[in-house]
Specification:
It is built from 7 helices and 4 strands, in the order αααααββββαα. By secondary structure, the protein is of the alpha+beta class. A two-stranded antiparallel ribbon has the order 1-2. It has a two-stranded antiparallel sheet with strand order 3-4. The longest helix is centred in the first third of the chain and has 20 residues. The radius of gyration is 21 Å and the shape is globular.
Length: 193
């Protein structure tokens, strides 16, 4: 697919960056992020690239999404009659309050540094947002580059996907409510292991 071709072209560059900024992660593409018992020790190691990336990540998160400030807003794009302006403004303010209430009650501020580190190292940051659980209404997860699939288009990104490994035993729970057929004998055998 176009997304895999794009990732395959970027992979050597991302691996090279990972060798310097977070040694060992260059193997994420090879073992799908599933760490083996083999220890990846670089021949030489200098902490400066990792320290600089961490510092830049902190600056990126603090600048673009400061925890103490509202970093996003709704804009009314159509003309509103003057007699309805206050009602529309109240509705927009309520939407903003609701949105930031969801962000504040989510794990976003815990996840943002990891997202910032991905941005600061290889520059292709992605965050996956899913419906939350009993603890949070929204759940944020930084997507590492070996899981990210992007379909580039003439105006930027046409679509994005996430590809990741999942133990077969979790398939049923992960795909609950989706129209996916898990009745194939090969899948059943793996799920029963």
């Amino acid at each position: 697919t176009a997304a895999k071709q794009w990732r395959d072209q970027a992979e050597p560059w991302i691996k090279e960056i990972f060798k310097h900024c977070c040694p060992g992660r260059e193997h994420d593409f090879d073992d799908h992020g599933m760490r083996t018992k083999e220890n990846y020790e670089p021949a030489t190691y200098h902490s400066l690239p990792e320290e600089l990336a961490t510092d830049l990540a902190s600056d990126i998160v603090t600048y673009f999404t400061p925890a103490e400030d509202r970093w996003s807003s709704y804009e009314v794009l159509t003309e509103v009659p003057e007699d309805q302006a206050q009602a529309v403004l109240d509705e927009v303010n309520k939407l903003e309050d609701d949105f930031f209430g969801l962000i504040e009650s989510s794990n976003y501020n815990d996840m943002a540094p990891q997202w910032g580190f991905e941005t600061a190292t290889h520059g292709t940051a992605a965050m996956w947002v899913t419906q939350g659980s009993i603890h949070h209404e929204l759940h944020f997860e930084a997507v590492p580059p070996h899981e990210l699939l992007i379909v580039p288009g003439h105006r930027g990104i046409n679509d994005r996907f996430r590809e990741f490994w999942l133990e077969a035993g979790f398939l049923e729970a992960q795909l609950q409510g989706e129209s996916v057929d898990l009745s194939d004998d090969r899948i059943k055998r793996k799920m029963e292991k």
